[in-house]
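Worked example

This section walks through a single chain of length 243. The input is the sequence exactly as stored; nothing has been trimmed or padded.
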Amino acid sequence: MSELTLRNIKFLFCDKEGELRLPFLFALNIIMYTVIIPTMWRGEHFRKMLPFVHGHPLVGEIILINNAGGVTPDWFRSQVWSKIEEIDLGTNIFVNPAWELGISRSNHDNICLMSDDVGFDHKVFDFLHNKLAPQFGCIGPDASSIMGAVNGPMAQITIDKPGYGYGTLLFLNKQNFTCIPRELKIFYGDNWIFNTHVRAGKKPRSILNLNITTKLETTSGSKEFLGQVYLEHQHWNNNIRNQ
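Given that input, the structure is written out below as tokens.
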């Protein structure tokens, strides 16, 4: 959808807060997103980014998996989030199982797997909304975007392997998701998705000029998870990597 078209629709169908009323989007058969966010509330960008994501007209729902075991910050509880379904199982189920849980509950085919420690240009939802049909592979940030390189408008390129930070903001069609091996709870979820898409003949891609801001592994790099991460490295390298 062009920005002009989107502006016209917003002018006609916005509520007083400037947010598109979802029934109009459904009636117009406009492709919507389910955004899935596992969180332990440690990402420094999360409080700033969540309202932008929530307010985007193409985001139909946000499934937030609270991995902090019943802990929810005041800033989140003090606001009304009409699009958010919070799932709190009382324990940390980790990132990859949270992705699976979110996808299993999603109502839209366009899936965004979003880290809670990432800042980005939310116009990416407009850029990708018609580029996630089942025949397309997954798409995530190019490593240059993670490093802050922006040299023009957003663009997509086909890639042979996922780059640095690929899984921080990963997009795919729901139909193309294959369950991640249970041994991989924290790492390699994006690699698994990438590889299954390659094997299925769907070409994964990267987004150039996305302008990502992140401190990678804000949560997963914590000392408390080092043992689990080590086991996952071993399992990936010994049992999965060359499948």
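What to look for: The radius of gyration is 18 Å.
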